[in-house]
Amino acid sequence: MGAVPNEPMLGTKPVEFGDTLRIKGLTKREPLRVNQVRRVRKRGMIAALAISGCALAASTVTPAVATPASMTPANATSTPTLPNPSAAPDAPSADDGLWYYTDTGVAEIHDSGITGEGVTIAIIDSPINLDVPDLAGARIHPRTDQLCPGFTGVEATERARHSTAMASLLVGNGAGIVEEPGVLGVAPDAEILHYAVLGVAVNECDAPLADLVTDAVEQGADILNLSIAYDSPNDAQKAIDVALAAGLVVNVAVQNQSSDRLDLLSGMPGVVSIENVDQGGNPDEFSVTGPGLDLLAPGVGIRMLRTDFSGYELDDGTSPATAWVSGVFALAKSEWPDATGNQLIQAAIRSTTPEPTTASTELPPRTDSSGYGRLDPRILLATDPSQFPDENPLLEVGATADPTETPPVTPLENAPAASRFIWLVGGFVAVTGLYALLLVVRRRRYRRGR
């Protein structure tokens, strides 16, 4: 099945519409049904569809005139597929969805005594359910109320599913629910700083991304996990600058939609952008390519908690792939505690398959379709990062990607008279639609994800 549809990302200035954070989508594999990560508010959907319709109509009637960037959704939308509450999905068998743990060498690394001890990972995501068995005993520190007093972000609601699933992939103990085996964390002894701002109301938390990252830095984070999309260029750039200046490894999921360009956050220079693949190293039905793509990681058929926390299902997506990479970086940091974030990145991009089983001193070749390749924890854990320069190797590579770039607009004076008239009418209708969206979006700074 296709991914849960996302809201459109409009090419507007943040001062007009406010910041927008969204969860990277998850796609449950057949024969299991798709559970939505979010519920779209009716008014927001109506406004978004109205603008999309205006843009589509303008491009259809006047193909010689490009649609203005501010009216063009960066990602297409479709009607959400609602789960059938009367038909519970079949539970995965004991070994289903754990290949990210058993087939990649993570289990053997744990057996050697490396479990992420002494490393701190910050995750900025949805609220979290700390009562699930897989997180019992995990060292998770909710930090949301430090920036948004009175709101902890800890709850057992449907909107807590995404963050709970990401935390389980990082530090899960595999306890399971009833008779179902649980989720095993890649770095079970790492500490988690948790920030809940996705899918929450403005009166619950309205903290900018940069403030969240600043707090994570002050609390000693080593790694930042961002399985999210974000549309505010100024705040996003400030947040990433803060993280990179402090030496954090910043892992960002690319969008779950085929594209030859990374989205805003994953396309930023210096971050580790991650695409998901299956056990054979093949992508799922979506493929994101571009000069800013860095690593491939397990993200197809991954065992994850159901939305109602009653059991488990198999999901696809760049979100679990990114959490997996954050866990692997935590293992490497635990093994090589004196290594800087830059050196860990240097080692990671040299520790990919199907390259040789030992890391090279030279940067490996990369492609826009697979980045540097699929990260291999075994190679990374056997590689001393201190031999590499304390420089972020992705700053120059990522700089070639421009996620905010928009298609050139044909000058109006060069269009035929009929096209100019239709352009003006379409522009008036679209601006009216944008105004309607403004009234909706200004009511909430953060919105739920795909």
TrEMBL record:
InterPro entries in the record: Peptidase_S8/S53_dom, Peptidase_S8/S53_dom_sf, Peptidase_S8_subtilisin-like, Peptidase_S8_subtilisin-rel
Residues covered by the Peptidase S8/S53 domain: 116-358
Active-site residues annotated for this sequence: 125 (charge relay system), 162 (charge relay system), 319 (charge relay system)
Protein species of origin: Gulosibacter molinativorax
Amino acid composition bias (Low complexity), ranges on this chain: 85-94, 351-364
Pfam families, per the entry: Peptidase_S8
Segments traversing the membrane: 421-441
Keywords: Hydrolase, Membrane, Protease, Serine protease, Transmembrane, Transmembrane helix
Stated name of the protein: Peptidase S8/S53 domain-containing protein
Family: Belongs to the peptidase S8 family.
Region of interest: Disordered: 70-94, 351-376, 386-405
Gene3D superfamilies: Peptidase S8/S53 domain
Superkingdom of origin: Bacteria
Phylogenetic classification of the source organism: Bacteria, Bacillati, Actinomycetota, Actinomycetes, Micrococcales
